[in-house]
Fold:
Amino acid sequence: MAKAYWVATYRAISNPDALAAYAQLSGPAIAAAGGRILARGVPAQTYESGLPMRTVLIEFDSVEQARAAHDSSDYQKALEVLADGAERDIRIVEGV
Structure:
């Protein structure tokens, strides 16, 4: 079974306090669901049409595990805290 990667990019952060509160809840929720945060922050370098947006990369053992983490009640509570504090894009990509 191929690993899966959850890639989150932040287009805009309008409420840093909400983002900090989200991080306090989402990290443990993701870890409890089997996720491992591999990288987070603003890119050290971008190329071509890359944008210097905050990016988070999380590894899971499978796409199903990544979906279950996102849909878990603990992660949904974290999303409620974030509310409209950030405009983001989350993608789950299967590893090769």
The chain has a mean pLDDT of 97.
